[in-house]
Amino acid sequence: MDLISTLVIAGIATSVLSGILLVGPLVYWLISRGYSVSRVVRGATFLAALLAIPGLLAVALFALAILGPVSPARLAGLAAVLLALFAAQYLAAPYLVLYTSRARRPGAGEEWVAELFEEVRRSSGYTGNVELYIVDTPVPNAFAVGNVFKKAVVVHSGLLTELDRGEVKAVLAHELGHIANRDNAYMIAVSLTPFFVYAVGLLSIFLGMSIIMSAAGGAQRQSRGAQSGVLVELAIGAAAISVGLLLAAASYLANIGVLAFSRVREHLADMYSVRVTGGTEIVQALEKIERAVKAMMESGKARSRLEPSIKKALHIIPMAYGELAGASLLSIIGFIMMSSPLSTHPSVEARAYVVSSYYRELASKRLYIHPKA
Q1: Where are the beta strands (DSSP E) in the chain?
Q2: What is the pLDDT of residues 155-212, one digit of tens each?
Q3: Binning pLDDT at 50, 70 and 90, where does residue 304 land?
Q4: Is residue 370 a part of any domain in this protein?
Q5: Has residue 131 been placed in a domain?
């Protein structure tokens, strides 16, 4: 096994093992042992980012190696491409997301939402310019988008009818936490490399399929003497598909570390909501939202996509759920199940555990930014 193969395997293994076994379960185990929730979660964000880096480097190196010889010039070229893609996505994302989701500013009868958001901003002490938008959809959810020029919190209309005002306030505070914590930039940065390699893999698969289909069609029109050329084309197509599948698999494995980072950032946003509201309404909001979305999925009113897409990372909840029956805090298996290692978000059970522990920690120190009356 050469050096490049060793680095690729070690990097991806680090990403997978840390994403499944370390970041989430370790957080909950330390909290259960009485360690400071704030210190544990903030430390876990650094740890998750640090342990995701080997997987990101490995998948980039693997893509270069499988598509040709690795050289300093090609590494520099890939870095330049990724940097340009990051800048483009970071700058364009808020405008594209708001446009494609048909987000609008609050209208008649929705003034209370804008007032509640202003109350959240004042309570948090966040002084940056953040706009509030509403998307007309019955699916109860919310998300945050932003760059240095435009920041926005977007609320689905279905969330406003599903939750009471205290719960809506908690969700608004959670999304403002994403803005204050610069999660948009962080998530684009860590997810870009796996996504880029996955896209290259898909292109390779489609190219291989196109070559095979073209060769198969040509074989029907050619004489037997030209069959050797067709066989060469079929071999090239099969090789392209194989390369694409390998790239897609590598990107998926590297993305496990990215998902762990996303889940810890969700805990940070939940904790931000607790500090701003002085309560644990974010848990009640999450439970209501999850029940409502599950009911909509069962009735066919909402679509469920089960892949762990990073595009779901900054919603209040993901649009897919895993079964968590039997999760227990008494075993490492319970901690792993509770952390939902193949999702952008921790389970509601895990989020409730961290929120309640953090609330008790703040209550013991009287550290609320805006105490409940």
Answers
A1: 131-135, 142-146, 151-156
A2: 999 999 999 999 999 999 999 999 999 999 999 999 889 988 998 899 999 999 998 8
A3: very low
A4: no
A5: yes
Both tokens assigned to 121: 């901003």
Instruction: Quick: pLDDT tens for 33-51.
Output: 899 999 999 999 999 999 9
Give the three-state DSSP class for 154: strand
Residue 33 lies in a domain: yes
Whole-angstrom CA distances from 17 to 22, 290, 341 are 7, 28, 10
- Nearest partner of 27 among 359, 355, 367, judged by Cα: 355
Q: Report whether 207 contacts 240 (CB < 8 A).
A: yes
Separation CA 367–CA 373 (nearest Å): 14
Query: What is the rounded distance in angstroms from the CA atom of residue 258 to the CA atom of residue 52?
Result: 6
Separation of alpha carbons 342 and 346, rounded Å: 9
The parent domain of residue 62 ranges over 3-365
Nearest to 120 by CA among 165, 62, 81, 66: 165
DSSP string, 25-90: HHHHHHHHTT--HHHHHHHHHHHHHHHHHHHHHHHHHHHHHHHS---HHHHHHHHHHHHHHHHHHH
Length of the chain: 373
Please state, in angstroms and rounded to a whole number, the distance separating the CA atoms of residues 123 and 117: 10
d(CA 188, CA 56): 13
Dist CA 373 CA 371 (whole Å): 6
Q: Which residue reads 């029956």 in tokens? A: 325
- Catalytic residue at 175? yes
259 closest CA partner among 9, 27, 35, 52? 52
Active-site entry in 162, 167, 175, 266: 175
Domain count, the chain: 1
Q: Is residue 217 part of a domain?
A: yes
